């Protein structure tokens, strides 16, 4: 369990370092062009996810996401105690990853985002993004498990662009990104809406894709 928790914490930290670090780099190099910045941020995030899932998946399952852990708990793939420990490790890792990104780019370590992401379309976007993420994990896990890391990375890269929220789809990521006033940030006041959308999307994705794939061999 110690190794599994370390894998979740380190993997989530590296994920946030990728998300926030690439956001800072993209913003600095894009010359004010938000589309170019988002291209850099989305490609780095998707590519990083593929590698991180391959790195840590054999140890912990590479959840890096409380929504994924909750789904695995409801599927009885993980117990309540380990699930709670996973979520705690993900939270600690996420905050550490933001701070590491700040240090790498000589930014103030302690920040608070002023980037408001409000309105029901943002909440809906997070529900859709998270539903699709859970669907990707469940469907490829049933049909092509070896492809799951690539599928998740590709899905998140696409979801950066087809969702109004740029697809956080992860409560730990959402809370941690409130601690960076960079391109990747989200104002603390916008966090509850995102968390509600993510929870709704995770539960909907679980029930929908478990029903769709209920007769398929695992």
TrEMBL record:
Coiled-coil annotated residue ranges, if any: none
GO CC annotation: plasma membrane
Q: Which terms does the record give in the GO molecular function aspect?
A: water channel activity
| Membrane disposition | Multi-pass membrane protein
Give the top-rank taxon of the lineage listed in the UniProt record for this protein.
Answer: Bacteria
Q: Name one Pfam family in it.
A: MIP
Q: Which Gene3D superfamilies match?
A: Glycerol uptake facilitator protein
* Keywords per UniProt: Membrane, Transmembrane, Transmembrane helix, Transport
Q: Which InterPro entries does the record match to this protein?
A: Aquaporin-like, Aquaporin_transptr, MIP
The places in or outside the cell where this protein is found are: Membrane
Per the UniProt record, which residue ranges are transmembrane? Answer: 36-57, 78-100, 120-138, 150-169, 189-213
Protein family (similarity comment): Belongs to the MIP/aquaporin (TC 1.A.8) family.
Protein's recorded name: Aquaporin family protein
């Amino acid at each position: 369990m110690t190794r599994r928790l370390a894998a979740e914490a380190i993997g989530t930290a590296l994920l946030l370092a990728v998300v926030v670090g690439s956001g800072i780099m993209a913003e600095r190099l894009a010359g004010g062009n938000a589309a170019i910045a988002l291209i850099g941020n989305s490609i780095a995030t998707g590519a990083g996810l593929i590698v991180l899932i391959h790195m840590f998946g054999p140890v912990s399952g590479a959840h890096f996401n409380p929504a994924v852990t909750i789904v695995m708990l409801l599927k009885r793939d993980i117990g309540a105690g380990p699930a709670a420990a996973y979520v705690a490790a993900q939270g600690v890792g996420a905050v550490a990853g933001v701070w590491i990104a700040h240090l790498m780019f000589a930014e103030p370590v302690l920040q608070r985002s002023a980037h408001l992401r409000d309105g029901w379309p943002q909440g809906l976007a997070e529900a859709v993004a998270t539903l699709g993420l859970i669907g990707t994990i469940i469907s490829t896990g049933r049909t092509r498990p070896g492809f799951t890391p690539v599928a998740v990375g590709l899905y998140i890269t696409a979801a950066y662009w087809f969702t109004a929220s740029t697809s956080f789809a992860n409560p730990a990521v959402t809370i941690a990104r409130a601690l960076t006033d960079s391109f990747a940030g989200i104002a603390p006041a916008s966090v509850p809406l995102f968390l509600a959308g993510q929870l709704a999307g995770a539960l909907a994705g679980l029930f929908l894709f478990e029903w769709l794939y209920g007769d398929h061999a695992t």
